[in-house]
Structure formats: C-alpha cells, structure tokens
Amino acid sequence: DNNRFQAIISHCKEYGFIFPSSEIYDGLGAVYDYGQWGSELKKNIKDYWWKSMVQLNENIVGIDAAIFMHPTTWKASGHVDNFSDPMIDNKDSQKRYRVDHLLEAKADELEKGGKKEEGGALLKEMDALLAANDFAGLKTLIEKNNIVCAVSGTCNWTDVRQFNLMFSTEFGAVSTEDNEANIVYLRPETAQGIFVNFLNVQKTGRMKIPFGIAQIGKAFRNEIVARQFIFRMREFEQMEMQFFIRPGSQKEWYEHWKTERMKWHLSLGIPAEKYRFHDHVKLAHYADAACDIEYDFPIGFKEVEGIHSRTDFDLRNHQEYSKKKMQYFDNDVDESTGKPYGNYIPYVIETSIGVDRTVMMVLSEAYEEQDLSTEEKKDSRVVLKFPPKLAPIKLAVLPLVKKDGLPEIARRIIDTCKPQFRCFYEEKDTIGKRYRRMDAIGTPFCVTVDHQTKEDNTVTIRYRDTMQQERIRVDAIKDLILKNIA
Ligand code: ATP
Fold first, then answer.
1. 3-class SS at 118?
2. Architecture of the domain defined by 84-164
3. Is the preceding peptide bond at 86 cis, omega within 30 degrees of 0?
4. Ligand 1 atom closest to Cα of residue 232
5. Ligand 1 environment, Cβ below 6 A
6. What is the CATH topology of the domain spanning 393-485?
7. Where does the record place the Aminoacyl-transfer RNA synthetases class-II family profile domain (predicted)?
8. How far is the centre of ligand 1, averaged over its atoms, from the C-alpha of 284 (Å)?
9. Nearest CA to ligand 1 atom 26
10. What is the pLDDT of residues 275-331, one digit of tens each?
C-alpha cells in the first residue's frame, strides 16, 4: 500500500540509502543519489548478479562499453524511429502523460474500488489498442473511462502522439551547417554496446556459440511520468546479458533463461508468490517473444526484469548499416544434414534487469515495522531484513563502555575482519539504541565487547532478525560471518 511505500522512501532518506538528486536545489525530477548505505547495497546487488551471470557461467564474459556510441547505432537499433511512447496532453493543465500509465492508474483505481474484473478488462483493451498502434482508439478509451486530470479536474485531451525517450547532446565543436551530424545520444539501454562489440569479443575471447556477453552500466530515458521513486528514473542502471545462439534454438534458450533468472530472484530469499511472469502482448520492435518478471511492490505487481528473444534483429541491422559482417562461423556438425552449420548471424536471448528496481525490490522485501511492546513498556523497531550477502554492513562491533580497554579489543576485532567484509564501529549511546540503528540499516550481526571478554575472550553476538543473543569466541566471529555471506 501507499503508506508503506512512503514509509520506505522516508526511511531511505533518513538512514543514508537514497537522496533526491541535488536536494539543496529542491531536487531534479526522477533523478536520485545513493548515499553511504544505498551505494553499498547497490554494489552488493551488482556484484551478486555479476557473480551469478559471469563468474559461474564459463561461457559468459563481461564488458564495459561507453555510454556514448556512434549515432548510427541508434538508427540501426531502431531507437531513433521506434523508441517512443504514446503520450497525450491535457490541454487545461498543460501536463503530458504516458497513455499506458494513465490507463494503468485507472485500472488500479477500479481494482481498489472492488471492480477487479473491470480493471482487468480495461488493461486487456489497452494492450490490444497499443499492439495495433490505434491512437484514436486509445484516446477514446481514455475519454470513455472519464479519466480526469488531478490538477484541473477536467479532461480536455489532445490527440495521442509518439514522443522519443532518448536524451541527446552535442559532440565536440558544433558545426553551424550540419547540426544533425553533431548529435549524440545518451544510451537508452546498455545492450547496443554489446552488439557492436559482438565480433571483437567473440574473436579475441575465442567464444563458441552458445555464449553470452554481460554488462552493467548506466542508461538514460526521458521518462514522462516519473513519480515512483527509483522505480522509474531518467538516469538508471541496467544489468544486461545477451546470449548468442543458433537460429532456430531461440524457443529453448528463451525458456532456459526464464527459468534461470527466476531461480536467481528466488535465491534472494524472496518467496515465489511475490513474483509472476507477464507475457508481452505488444512486442517491442526487436522481439519475437518477450516477458517480464514482475515483483509485488508496495505499489503493486510491476516489472523488475525483461527477458526478450531478440532474434537476429540487432546484429542484422548493424551489419546492414555498418557494412561489416556480423556473422559467426559454426563448424559444429548439424546432425540433420551431416554438414557444419557454417556462417550465420546469431540469434539473441536477452536478460535485462534494472539495478535500481532491484534495489527497490530488495528494500521493499526487507522493510519491516515491528511492535515489540511488552506489558511493562511500549517498544517498536524498523528492521531491514536484507539477505546478509546484500547487507551494506555485515558486522557491527560495539564496546559496552568507552573505557577499561574494551574499545581496543573492539578495534582489534574490526582489524581482523575488515579486509574480508564491511564492518562498523560504534561506541556512542546505549547498546539498545546502537542495536536499533543497526537494525534500521539492516546489519545482520552485532557483537558486543564487555568485561567478560577480557576474561574468557568471548563476545555477545546478536542476530538481527531474531534478536537472539549468544556468546561466541572472538576467534570464531570472522568465519561465522563469512559462512553467512557466501
Ligand atoms: P517500463 O515498461 O517499466 O518502462 P521497459 O519495458 O521499457 O520498462 P526495458 O526496456 O525492458 O524496460 O528495460 C529493462 C529493465 O530496465 C526493466 O525491467 C527495468 O528494470 C529497467 N528500467 C527500464 N526503464 C527504467 C527506468 N526509467 N528507471 C529504472 N529502471 C528502468
């Protein structure tokens, strides 16, 4: 629900996870900065993805391509002509909306008002009209559903039109004659950096089909409706993998990657009922099959990841525009003909997941407000139950008091552990308050050094989720934590 969503946004700001960009100037629409703990969380998510996709798959390698690419890239990829969304303007409020967002919001409203079937029917009708590019039909659907602008309360709409979502800028010295020639785009997806390097990587890496190329990097889209925190940003990060395969084997590999990616999501400890697949009715300009993995956010089921069967669309177009062969020579023998497969342009299955949406998913899943009141006193806590491998800080070391040599022992524990994982030292406030602060940023383990530590070399370890405490030997701390974050 929306209260929970707002509570998470406030928590993120208050505890150093995510700030609005340039906040001292009142922020910049749909742009966010990651703070001290948010950046650790985000990095851990990227590392975990990279490990699962690259380190654990011998036939997948990574690259790091530039954000700027030759402008022809985006002609070949279809983004100059097709990367646009149908939008509509409200003439009274002079606000522009994405048509699908307006209708989705209406469907949500119907569902919340107990009219689930009507909402579903509306989305079905919208999908069909979008698939047919029926702009007049979309406008009628908006008017028929009496969608009014929240600001002006009226509904005087323009026609539905397409707007391109790519950001552009100019390169080098600007020529006065040919402005077009200087225009470069900020990439709206990382995938094209992989396609244009397909042969470089295949040849230098001696890669054999099937193989994949993975990449993590920034992408930019001039999103129109952008009011959903880090769900829809104008600058965001993607983790993409393009898997190159023999033409004809795409159905099998598409299913393979659907299964593999769902396994990855479940490995985050998120229950299966929080996920669903959503098959695309309207396919993007490059795809012959596509689906989303949706997660049940506090604002409803929404896309986190897309899995797309991109055929040979991208490589074929780059071959046409660049006049460079984008072919692979396959000397494996085709059993049906008894001859080698020979030369072909590979087909591609893509898995594309947003880093920021994954951060939001992990935060939504982890955030819990707990009432800990007893007969004697009222008490509560906010805890972020991150999987330990994703937690910004793994271990907090807390001396009970600021004297008697306890800080020194705590420092020695940190010195032994910090080369292996992120630790945190704190000596201010009561132990109870320090535990609460660690709960609020999702630290899975706290150890407290007390006077007994000096006698028997043990500390109290306190577990975030159960709040259980037990004594363990100082020299057992590091291994216990390493075991839990592996
Ligand atoms: P949507 O329909 O929500 O706009 P999309 O289908 O256009 O998303 P893709 O082009 O498939 O998204 O991009 C792959 C992934 O990149 C998405 O699943 C999402 O996680 C992420 N992503 C796309 N656009 C944004 C954005 N504006 N802000 C944050 N993440 C995004």
1. helix
2. 2-Layer Sandwich (3.30)
3. no
4. 28
5. 189, 221, 223, 232-233, 236, 238, 303-306, 352-354, 356-357
6. Rossmann fold (3.40.50)
7. 116-399
8. 12
9. 232
10. 999 998 878 777 899 999 999 999 999 999 999 999 999 999 999 999 999 999 999
